[in-house]
Design brief:
The protein is mainly beta. It has 2 domains: 4-28 and 187-436, Neuraminidase, CATH 2.120.10; 54-182, TolB, N-terminal domain (Rossmann fold). 13% of the residues lie in helices and 39% in strands. It has 4 helices and 30 strands. The strands form 7 sheets. Strands 1, 2, 3, 4, 5 and 6 form a 6-stranded mixed β-sheet that branches. A 4-stranded antiparallel β-sheet has the order 9-8-7-30, with no helix packed on it. A 4-stranded antiparallel β-sheet has the order 10-11-12-13, with no helix packed on it. Helix 2 packs across helix 4. The protein starts with a helix and ends in a 7-residue tail after the last strand.
């Protein structure tokens, strides 16, 4: 069975043989810049990073119970916090063993104040100190953030709950650190939906940023499930093959059954949009229950919709100008203007900040561009096939799939292409087609 990407390319190729001239008559205006007219242009890869990075040290957590002991969490939880902060691109993690701090309880108990001097000597801007009290399956975790540069405590948080919720506590503290340091809370704990498995065994799974885990939420013995997406309220939709027909699921109900379904996506108001294949073209439709209203009607294939944060504009993929490319138009439809360079471009995702659109160029590398077609930057290069990018709900990170490690996995990077790393490396099996929820986690 053909994969979804290959199926799209086959349909696009067939349409080009019968409708290119008609499609060109309805082509939108050319995007600005000579680079868009030259398919052989080399797009510069930007991996240098533009974020300010702060040196942060996270020593092993300590027991807060007199004579008590802590288990492996004393090491694994600081490591998890460090991994979270490293993902964001704002922090450089220092080895805490380089510090000559004499008292590991410093800053955790009243009788032992925090000593800034040994941390300043190793160049730390911030230090996190953590204390644990573990009683059976219950955990109390106290976390402190010290600002070495100004010599003051910036954060003090206490968390109580089941020991199994420790990573979620770390996720919340990560968000608080980002708020204190950058002025905007992080999105650890937000949800990412994706496809697990290959070929006929594809199913739908979900993960939370910072948990290193995945939960299966849908599978069918009648055919593969693909193209998941998340919308406001973490409402989920996906397509799956039910025998000889495709079905579109949304909110746990079938909203369409029949034609091949492509790339469902939610509008900011919660409406679901998806491509439905016709005899010689594919158009986008807006669904209301089981009713569908046609959104685009050009003589071409249109799919992969994504919307500006205010819902006024839509980016999508079309072959109306020849090779498939990313176009922008009104969310109510109409002829779009191409914003991607020459060659095949697919999989657009609009940043929730509204300033960027990320997409895949030449079925291999991830690029970002401004919604008017300016500011083109390539984020990946020479690292296998990189597909399916999706912005985090704060616009500061991008999740995508890549086969650079020998199998297809979910990867994450800063929005400028920095800190590229596997998202859930301990989860086995093929992982693809991620979609990041637009909802920020509860703080």
């Amino acid at each position: 069975m053909f994969g979804f990407k290959r199926l799209i390319l086959i349909i696009l190729a067939l349409l080009l043989t019968v409708g290119v001239a008609r499609a060109q008559q309805q082509q939108g205006p050319e995007a600005p810049g000579d680079e868009f007219a030259n398919p052989s242009v080399l797009i510069p890869v930007n991996l240098s990073g533009t974020f300010n990075r702060f040196n942060i040290a996270i020593p092993a957590f300590q027991s807060l119970k007199s004579g008590g002991k802590v288990d492996q969490n004393a090491q694994t939880l600081p490591a998890r916090l460090g991994k979270n902060l490293d993902m964001t691109g704002f922090f450089q993690i220092l080895d805490p063993r380089a510090s000559l701090e004499a008292d590991p309880m410093g800053g955790l108990i009243e009788s032992s104040p925090f000593n800034y001097a040994p941390w300043a000597q190793i160049g730390a801007s911030f230090v996190v100190k953590g204390g644990l009290t573990i009683s059976g399956s219950k955990l109390t975790m106290e976390l402190r953030l010290f600002d070495v540069s100004v010599g003051e405590q910036r954060l003090a948080k206490r968390y109580n709950g089941p020991l199994k919720e420790a990573k979620r506590m770390i996720a919340r503290f990560t968000n608080d650190i980002l708020l204190a340091v950058t002025g905007e809370a992080g999105v650890f704990g937000s949800k990412i939906i994706f496809v697990m498995g290959e070929k006929v065994n594809k199913s739908i799974s979900m993960t939370e940023l910072g948990l290193d885990e995945a939960e299966g939420i849908f599978s069918s013995k009648k055919g593969p499930a693909t193209q998941p997406t998340l919308g406001p309220g973490n409402k989920a939709a996906w397509a799956y093959r039910n025998g000889r027909k495709w079905e579109l699921m949304s909110g746990g109900s079938v909203v369409h059954s029949g034609e091949t379904v492509f790339s469902p996506a939610f509008m900011p108001n919660g409406s679901l949009v998806a491509g439905l294949s016709g005899r010689v073209s594919t158009h986008l439709y807006v669904f209301s229950g089981r009713s569908a209203k046609q959104l685009t009607n050009g003589a071409s294939i249109e799919l992969s919709p994504t919307f500006s944060p205010d819902g006024s504009r839509m980016a999508y993929v079309s072959n109306q100008g020849g090779a498939p490319g990313v176009y922008v138009t009104s969310s109510s439809g109409g002829v779009g203007a191409r914003i991607s360079p020459g060659g095949t471009s697919t999989d657009p995702s609009w940043s929730p900040k509204g300033d960027k659109i990320v997409f895949v160029h030449r079925q291999r590398d991830i690029c970002v561009v401004n919604p008017d077609g300016s500011g083109l930057v390539q984020l990946t290069g020479g690292q296998g096939r990189n597909l399916d990018p999706s912005f985090s709900p704060d616009g500061r990170m991008i999740v995508f799939s890549s086969d650079r490690g020998g199998r297809t996995q979910l990867y994450i990077m800063s929005a400028n292409g920095d800190r590229q790393q596997p998202l859930i490396p301990e989860v086995s099996g093929s992982q693809s087609q991620p979609s990041w929820s637009p909802d920020k986690p509860e703080q």
